[in-house]
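S.,

Sequence below, as promised.
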Amino acid sequence: MLLRLKLYLLVALMFAIIYSVLVIAASAMGIGGFAFYAVIASVLLLVQYIIGPKIVEKSMGVRYVNRDEYPELHSMVEDLSKKAGIPKPKIGVSKLQIPNAFAFGRWRSDGRVCVTEGIMRVLSREELRAVLGHEISHLKHRDVTVITMLSVVPMILWYMAWSFMWGGGFGRGRGNAAMLGLVAFLLYFITNLLVLYGSRIREYYADMGSVKLGNPPHALASALYKLVYGSARVDRESLKQMEGYKAFFVNDPSRALHEISELKQVDTDLSGTIDRDELLALKGKKVRLATSDRLMEMMSTHPNMVKRIKYLSELA
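The prediction came back faster than expected:
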């Protein structure tokens, strides 16, 4: 309930910011061309929303599979979606070797859940089911739509900042235009951080959703651990190609090498998995992060992995 409330408050804050900026700009400059850029941003968002799934499919090399090809995968997704109370999503397999999974779609009935070829080689059945529960929870919560809505705010602010600072302003008062441009640029940076914060909230929310669907917290924690190690083995060129799509994944593959050193404080026997006893041992303990790790998390689409596993321990 708290995570859902945070997302709702974040949406309200973001649109309050953009509404305030537009009202101030209209008052200071007169109704002018800056509104045109807000329309452009909205149109771009709509186009992205409509053709986004096709772009993801092509970029990720997704092939939709039937029950005959992957009976166990279909069985798990069908059971989890029934428990979640949503229509069974289309099931795809991505040719990517990065071990991971992702979900996307315009609405619940348009949902798609995909796994990479790499993930099916590294996870046990229980771990894979926990990851699929995480992805189905994204569809249940409609948080893909929420993040898409939030992303339009910094987009509008960027267009406004560029127009006011370099376009000479609109209406009267070039000095006012420059000042408004600086304010819009500052708010662009702040709202970008808020979008990243919203992305991290939705990951925690989906983790909780997977547990609510009957998956043991230690299964998801162990799956996350294995995905980190699996991503660290992937060549850097493959990781770079996926940089623009990492927000879709269960974890951020580009941070894998750094996260391995952090996870040593969780997996005390270095077994490469996290069992129930290890997860319970984290319950009640404080997670201490270096300042650099906190800053890195602020700029990331995903929560710090140690904090995330600590959160799962609280659900155990």
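Residues 217-315 form one domain.

Coffee later?
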